[in-house]
Structure formats: C-alpha cells, structure tokens
Amino acid sequence: MVRLTVDLIAKNSNVKPRKEETIAQCLKKITHINFSDKNIDAIEDLSLCKNLSVLYLYDNRISQVNNLNYATNLTHLYLQNNCIPCIENLRSLKKLEKLYLGGNYIAVIEGLEGLEELRELHVESQKLPLGEKLLFDPRTLRSLAKSLSILNISNNNIDDIRDLEMLENLNHLIAVDNQLLYVKVGVKKI
C-alpha cells in the first residue's frame, strides 16, 4: 500500500528547502506534483501544499478521491487509469479547469456541481459492466452548462447524447467508439 503523503512528496520530489526554510515552508510553494504510475492507492492530507495547481496521479490504484478539499488553487487534475468508481469530494475545487478521469470504473457523471470553471472533462473508456453505459446526472450537466467546452466520452457504450444539448458552450465533443445510431447536428441561431 502506497499513500500519497507530504512526507512522500518531500522525499521523492525536487523539494529542496533553502538553508533558512523548513520542509513545510517549501511544500507551501509547490504548484505541480507528479506521482503518476507509483502504485498510489490513497491520497492523505496534503493541506501543506496550499499553492498546488496541477496534480498528476494517473496510472495508479486510487479507489477514492479524498483529501483534496484544501487544494482550492487546483486547476488541473489527472486521475485517469485508476480504480475510481464514482466522482466525489471535488466540490471545493472551485478553480478546477481540466479534469481527467478516463479509464476508471465510473458509471454516472455526477458530483461536479459548483465547478463553474471546469472547461474540459475527460471520462473516456470507463470499465463498465457488460451491457452498461455511461450516464449523466442532470444536475451536473446543468451545473456545467455554461463552462464546459471540451468533453471526451469515447468508448462508453453510449447510445444517446441528447442530454448533452444543455451544454451551451460545448464546442468539442469526442464520442468515438460508442453505440450512437443517430446524431442530430444543430446550428445555433444568433
């Protein structure tokens, strides 16, 4: 079991405090953390990393997204190819712009209410039970209606995308390798 902790970050990153600086002071300055493909299975309290804006945790074994409520400056979160079954505990990430969750076990896109800065959502290739398809919670779609401009829902057995019509600013939809039979292309009148 490998847990992402501030101690692990301090030991395995380029965090080198100056002579007059403590590790805690140094951790407060960190803006990017990359612990992809490190067998991480849990995220511990990283609240010392107050200025964190980009977090790379893809290709790990994380099954629950937690302890990120401190990360109010986070703009990019990379969690693809983990073991995440549902989207949760992200509502405090008010500055989040890009969220990568492809290759997990998510069956319903939900729990993103209040993320008014989210412009990109990547949820491609979820590992769903045979015959299941990726679903969208209407509350989440309404919440993302004005901000979301890029959505990747490829390879999720989706057969209908009419629910996505409420996404007013969506200008790039990636939906290859689904079960779409009919796609209506609309033109917005000005």
UniProtKB/TrEMBL annotation:
CDD domains: PPP1R42. Coiled coil: none annotated. Transmembrane segments: none annotated. Keywords: Leucine-rich repeat, Repeat. SUPFAM superfamilies: L domain-like. This is Protein phosphatase 1 regulatory subunit 42 isoform X1. It comes from Octodon degus (Degu). The lineage of its organism: Eukaryota, Metazoa, Chordata, Craniata, Vertebrata.
